Model the fold of this input.
Amino acid sequence: MTISLRKCVFLVGALCVSLTITTIMYGQYYDLNFFHDRLANRKAVKKDDFFRLRFNFKVPVLQWAGSFSHSEWGRLEKYMPPYGWKDLPQDVVRSTLALLNDSSSSRLFERRWPDQCVRCAVVGNGGILGGSKQGRAIDSHHFVFRVNGAITKHFEEDRGRYIFIPSNERDYVMMSAAIQGLTVTSGHDKGDWPSQYFGFKPPVQHFKMLHPDFITYVTQRFLKSPLLKYSQLYMPSTGALMLLTALHMCDQVSAYGFITKNFADFSDHYYDAVKQPLRFYANHDMQMESWLWEVLHAQKVMSLYKRTKEK
Done:
């Protein structure tokens, strides 16, 4: 996938994020002393002791055809999805990842030149966006991540790229069928036609899948909530996973529609016709995530969109 001047959009497909977790396990250990000075946000990370000990840009963000091997299967089959491949049929994992065989499948994007500064916006559904008139600012980024189907009119005809969170067998089967232009042949979505969500046989470059090691790493390093002890329930929010994905792959990151300190001033969602209070769910720790976004913003690792309530 080559960066061009046209807008590129990443979506997290609604069918790809049914996050049912039964246990929390630890993935492979990676050396934490690796930084790349070229990237602007990584320079900000190096200046902060707290984040310097947490960010590790060597952990693979995406899994692809080259991610599967006999040794990797033996390692990751010990851990439940999305932290591994436990209880997943080996042939399903192998055959699905084999389809992600393009030279770009292991990368979110291609730089047009080595020193290109890639700017990304991650757009959530928060009520703070309602009436904010931030559309032009969001559109100015090279890449836009839209979380949980947060589609605006400007993007209705752009099916964009799709990042799958591999939470269970269903996601592997759905991706496989979507890439091949087939109906789903097994499982919960048997008989479903993915083309209605993704278009008919879109280029394989349009499909990305997060690596289990990356999900483990960001959960343990950034999103280690006390709720982890309730491992059958807790899972980082989709927005958190997408924002941390962008922070590990883009040079500059801006977050829109994410929870801020004055969340009570705004409705739960930007599209609510009548103001609704923000709902906190037991399977996410939104207050911990909010604290993390504030700190990342304060240390200039990313930019968090904020505004005060209109009088």
In short: The longest helix spans residues 286-298. The beta strands are 8-11, 119-123, 143-146, 161-164, 207-209, 252-256, 303-304. The domain at 8-304 is CATH 3.90.1480.20 (sialyltransferase cstii, chain A).
